[in-house]
């Protein structure tokens, strides 16, 4: 495949995952907009496979009841391919096989060697194709928001996901020949598979999903579908209340004792629980204190917290970037450091936004107590020793922009790239061969790059052209337990070594 | 005679004032530039100055030195250069005009000159009056002194400009094959040279922190230059330092100024990186030319750290936050001596506990 062998034709390569990302077309890149002038052997094989599967499905469709095609998902307007395929719910293993065949090793994605075992966004997106047609629109919207970091943060994502699940359950109709208890779980699994393509699930989301699936399987057989759905939605509401909202309140109660009048608090990034805590102390308990917010690229979550807290009367906000951390600690005598968590691991380590470990270490070295506020839903029985073996890779291009962070969704970006490619082809006329088109667009791209590289602003807009240059953007890091004084959860305050105890408790409750 | 000296004094004043305003307006920034400009400036001062005794000469240079140090108080290089020049002059005056002493002191060579100059320090107490009389009468002696000193300053200037070449020579011994290096100071030309020279003999990977918001442009240029030299480069955000530190073999920083206790001032964020390296027992190397070494002691750390444009940290686009939050943007960071394992200079490789040895030859 020319686009794989020619690393310069990035636009071509990006067309490939675009096609796979576009609705339920199987991995057949040649089927995007322009007529397939490039017939390549791999793709021909894939086409054949698709036709065979289509035949199989058509045969099986008669036996099975109709699926739940809620809406033809029409992301790009290129969904004419979908009509060829039947919309039948497949078993999980079939889906997995299809997705694995659909995954394309995008050789243009550049990751530093140290982290090359982690999955990039492109690979995640490439896994999405066939499922898209049966995905509920709330889930689609949520995935888009999550992947563009509009909905960010462990508790927030969990809550939004559960709300979206309520919508899914509302519009769910059990197909004939199966019961709600058995089928709803697999239906939800498809939705979850699609959610995963936005960003990997966090531990809190994983725990919530496990709980939900358990709840579904516990519904009595006699109950009618309508009643079952109502019951499930109530349960979800209760879960959100208990595990997220009220837990936050209890944690606030426990932790507010630490914040006195005129104390100085250090915090990093943005955490829902901590925001509630600070607001509670300032508004309800009427304490006045100083908050030092430390922030970092690329997400700048601290700004969100600063916006919320700066409007509160009793709080004086200070905002700094992480490079000025040691100056802040040196100048102001901080009393406490409060940190939020993505999850707590079984070996007492804190898995949280990248940069937390640096803040915790610096605080510890200046004898500032580090307190972590974390709901019990975020506890995980995973064990991890360093931040490299298991992490989440973000988009490398987010680091290049020195301007404010404004992310377009991956699919939208692909669509725009395709539009550009189409324009180029139309300009060249219909008769030209694919090669020449490629060269043309490549030349134009090179010209553009030359112009942009002459500009001083974005010196690295063409960073992908340098084979030895890489950009690292990981989202999480691991804080060793030695730096953490106390973990405050809704079941009490405990030292980091007691995380497995809570897990045992938590499992016994559910 | 007095009117001539008046004119000369005026010329001197103009010269000094121009240079000081240049410094105050930050028309000259960066240790290297300032050092070379100060050398040029001092050469001119010495040629236009009028004095009757060498003691007066020394006083004159000291006064000028104090004034230019105050022009950019956080840039210690001016003071360092003036001190070196004073050392040249003093050796010239005390050491009966021996070129040997001059050359040795300029190059910071070991013990012999130290002994002789200290010895002579004690002995000049007796002979100073006689030498004074001798020189008072001899204006040609004055000119000799002048030309020798100017020669000394030229050598100093050459030393400053050859800092990078000399440091490069030490690279090969310090980096091994397939190593992962971390450098949090992408703005340092010395570090860049160091790495480029080392890449000729060794294959390694360099992680560069972004130093957002102050040095991010420089970081990108730095990374580009390294990539063009086919060195594996990875740009990492400042927050990721702890996450990758366990995989890093060495940390390489460029120091802005080094103090008598072995601590140094560098870019913002470097202190945290060095602390992190200490936790992981990763060696930290600091590269700095000898002209950055200052015999002052950092009593007040706050005064060392310059504060920059808060608008870079929180741009005015976040208008609802701008008025309500305290935003600071410290440009520098002080690194304590315990966090730095070794200073690599153009003359020697120093460990911070023994830095005072160096200052013995330089400060008087």
UniProtKB/TrEMBL annotation, chain A:
Q: Where are the stretches annotated Disordered?
A: 1-104, 425-457
Q: Membrane: present as a keyword of the record?
A: no
Q: Where is the composition biased (Basic and acidic residues)?
A: 41-50
Which Pfam families does the UniProt entry name for this protein? IF-2B
This chain belongs to the protein called Translation initiation factor eIF2B subunit delta
What family does the Swiss-Prot or TrEMBL record give for this protein? Belongs to the eIF-2B alpha/beta/delta subunits family.
Compositional bias annotation for Low complexity: 9-30
SUPFAM superfamilies xref list: NagB/RpiA/CoA transferase-like (SSF100950)
Where is this chain compositionally biased, Polar residues type?
Answer: 89-101
Q: What's any one GO cellular component for it?
A: cytosol
State if Cytoplasm is listed as a keyword.
Answer: yes
What subcellular locations does the record give? Answer: Cytoplasm, Cytosol
Q: Which UniProt keywords apply?
A: Cytoplasm, Initiation factor, Protein biosynthesis
Its quaternary structure?
Component of the translation initiation factor 2B (eIF2B) complex which is a heterodecamer of two sets of five different subunits: alpha, beta, gamma, delta and epsilon. Subunits alpha, beta and delta comprise a regulatory subcomplex and subunits epsilon and gamma comprise a catalytic subcomplex. Within the complex, the hexameric regulatory complex resides at the center, with the two heterodimeric catalytic subcomplexes bound on opposite sides.
Q: Name one GO molecular function term.
A: translation initiation factor activity
UniProtKB/TrEMBL annotation, chain B:
Name of the protein: Unnamed protein product
Domain of life assignment: Eukaryota
């Amino acid at each position: 495949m020319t686009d794989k062998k020619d690393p310069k034709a990035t636009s071509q390569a990006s067309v490939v995952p675009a096609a796979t990302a576009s609705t339920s077309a199987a991995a057949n890149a040649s089927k995007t907009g322009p007529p397939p002038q490039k017939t390549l052997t791999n793709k021909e094989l894939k086409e054949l496979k698709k036709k065979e599967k289509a035949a199989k499905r058509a045969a099986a469709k008669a036996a099975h009841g109709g699926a739940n095609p809620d809406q033809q998902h029409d992301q790009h307007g290129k969904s004419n391919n979908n009509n060829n395929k039947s919309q039948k719910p497949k078993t999980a293993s079939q889906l997995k096989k299809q997705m694995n065949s659909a995954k394309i090793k995008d050789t243009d994605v550049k990751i530093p060697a140290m982290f090359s075992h982690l999955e990039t966004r492109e690979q995640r997106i490439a896994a999405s194709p066939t499922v898209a047609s049966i995905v509920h629109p709330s889930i689609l919207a949520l995935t888009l928001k999550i992947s563009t970091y509009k909905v960010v943060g462990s508790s927030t994502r969990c809550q939004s996901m559960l709300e979206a699940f309520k919508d899914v359950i509302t519009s769910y109709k059990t197909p004939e020949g199966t019961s709600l208890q058995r089928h709803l779980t697999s239906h939800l699994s498809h939705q979850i598979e699609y959610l995963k393509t936005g960003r990997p699930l966090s531990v809190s989301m994983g725990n919530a999903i496990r709980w939900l699936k358990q709840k579904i399987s516990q519904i009595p057989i006699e109950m009618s579908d309508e009643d079952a759905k109502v019951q499930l939605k109530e349960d979800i509401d209760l879960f959100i209340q208990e595990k997220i909202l009220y837990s936050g309140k209890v944690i606030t109660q426990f932790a507010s004792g630490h914040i006195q009048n005129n104390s100085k608090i250090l915090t990093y990034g943005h955490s829902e629980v901590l925001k509630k805590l600070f607001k509670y102390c300032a508004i309800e308990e009427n304490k006045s204190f100083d908050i030092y917010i430390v922030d970092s690229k690329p997400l700048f979550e601290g700004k969100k917290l600063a916006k919320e807290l700066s409007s509160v009367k009793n709080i004086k906000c200070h905002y700094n970037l992480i490079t000025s951390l040691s100056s802040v600690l040196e100048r102001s005598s901080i009393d406490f450091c409060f940190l939020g968590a993505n999850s707590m691991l079984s070996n007492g380590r804190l898995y949280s936004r990248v940069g937390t470990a640096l803040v915790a270490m610096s605080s510890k070295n200046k004898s500032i107590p580090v307190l972590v506020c974390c709901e019990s839903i975020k506890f995980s029985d995973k064990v991890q020793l360093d931040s490299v073996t298991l992490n989440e890779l973000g988009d490398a291009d987010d680091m290049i922009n020195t301007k404010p962070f404004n992310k377009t969704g991956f699919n939208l970006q692909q669509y725009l790239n395709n539009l550009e490619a189409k324009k180029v082809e139309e300009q060249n006329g219909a008769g030209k061969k694919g090669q020449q088109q490629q060269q043309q667009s490549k030349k134009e791209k090179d010209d553009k790059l030359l112009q942009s590289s002459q500009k001083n602003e974005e010196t690295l807009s063409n960073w992908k052209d340098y084979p030895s240059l890489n950009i690292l953007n990981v989202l999480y890091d691991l804080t060793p337990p030695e730096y953490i004084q106390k973990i405050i959860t809704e079941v009490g305050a405990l030292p980091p070594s007691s995380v497995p105890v809570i897990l045992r408790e938590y499992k016994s409750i559910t | 005679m007095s009117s001539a000296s008046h004119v000369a004094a005026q010329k001197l004043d103009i010269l000094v004032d121009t240079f000081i305003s240049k410094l105050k307006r930050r028309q000259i920034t960066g240790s290297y530039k300032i050092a070379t400009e100060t050398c040029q400036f001092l050469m001119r001062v010495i040629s236009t100055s009028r004095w009757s005794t060498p003691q007066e000469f020394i006083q004159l240079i000291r006064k000028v030195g104090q004034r230019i140090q105050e022009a950019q108080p956080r840039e210690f290089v001016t003071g360092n250069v003036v001190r070196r020049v004073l050392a040249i002059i003093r050796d010239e005056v005390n050491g009966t005009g021996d070129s040997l002493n001059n050359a040795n002191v300029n190059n910071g060579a070991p013990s012999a000159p130290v002994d002789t100059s200290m010895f002579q320090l004690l002995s000049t107490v007796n002979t100073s009056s006689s030498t004074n009389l001798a020189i008072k009468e001899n204006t040609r002696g004055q000119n000799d002194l002048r030309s020798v000193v100017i020669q000394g300053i030229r050598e100093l200037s050459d030393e400053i400009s050859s800092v990078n070449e000399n440091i490069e020579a030490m690279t090969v011994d310090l980096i091994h094959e397939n190593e992962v290096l971390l450098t949090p100071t992408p703005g340092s030309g010395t570090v860049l040279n160091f790495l480029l020279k080392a890449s000729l003999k060794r294959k390694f990977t360099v992680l560069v922190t972004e130093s957002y918001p102050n040095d991010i442009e420089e970081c990108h240029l730095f990374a580009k230059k390294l990539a063009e030299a086919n060195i594996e480069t990875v740009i990492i955000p400042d927050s990721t330092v702890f996450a990758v530190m366990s995989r890093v073999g060495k940390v390489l920083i460029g120091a802005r100024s080094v103090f008598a206790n072995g601590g140094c001032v560098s870019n913002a964020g470097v202190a945290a990186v060095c602390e992190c390296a200490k936790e992981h027992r990763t060696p930290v190397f600091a590269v700095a030319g000898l002209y950055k070494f200052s015999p002052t002691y950092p009593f007040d750390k706050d005064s060392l750290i310059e504060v920059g444009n808060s608008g870079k940290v929180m741009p005015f686009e976040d208008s609802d936050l701008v008025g309500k939050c305290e935003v600071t943007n410290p440009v520098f960071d002080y690194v304590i001596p315990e966090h730095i394992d070794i200073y690599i200079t153009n003359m020697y490789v120093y460990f911070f506990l023994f830095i005072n040895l160096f200052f013995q030859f330089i400060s008087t």
